[in-house]
Design a protein that fits this description.
Radius of gyration: 18 Å
Number of helices: 1
Helix content: 10-25%
Order of helices and strands: HEEEEEEEE
Largest sheet: 8 strands, antiparallel, barrel
Distance between the termini: 36 Å
């Protein structure tokens, strides 16, 4: 099958579904609900290095109104994807738990990583605290890293050619 035969149906599907997705893609939130995509920065606790000589990492999150969340962070030159759930805990306050796989520098699976976070949303600003919990493939906890903070803002729809 040619690239054109694959690309045209995918593009048509994307265009047809974009109208329905437009509101969620702009980070719609309410006092008890989250949806949309967000981009931000994670700050690791003092003394902890991100592996590249710093203590911050970029992060992307997508919240769905059904209570699911997808989390993307960099790992060993590629992306690590975590999936999980979120709940409202109070007006503008939320909690989430997401799980991802962790690989060594050679690309070998080594453990599971659970992210637990408490966050606040006020207007177009999200901020919160998180901890990582590491467990082996059987689920036995190997350790944790508390004291992580993060901030994020919604990813807004932009037209082609806008700056």
């Amino acid at each position: 099958m040619t690239l054109r035969k694959l690309l045209l149906p995918a593009l048509a599907l994307l265009l047809l579904s974009s109208a329905a997705m437009r509101r969620a893609a702009q980070g719609q939130t309410s006092s008890t609900g989250l949806s949309g995509s967000w981009i931000g920065v994670v700050t690791l606790p003092p003394g902890l290095d991100n592996g590249a000589g710093g203590n911050t990492l970029p992060i992307m999150l997508t919240y769905n109104s059904n209570g699911t969340v997808t989390l993307v962070t960099p790992q060993n030159g590629s992306d690590s994807v975590g999936i999980g759930t979120w709940v409202s805990t109070a007006n503008g306050q939320f909690a989430l738990t997401a799980n991802s796989f962790d690989y060594d520098n050679d690309g070998n699976y080594r453990r599971n990583v659970k992210v637990r976070a408490s966050l606040s949303v006020s207007g177009s600003q999200m901020s919160g605290n998180a901890e990582l919990v590491f467990s082996d493939p059987t689920g036995a906890v190997q350790g944790s890293i508390p004291g992580i903070t993060f901030t994020a803002t919604p990813i807004a729809v932009e037209t082609i050619g806008s700056m």
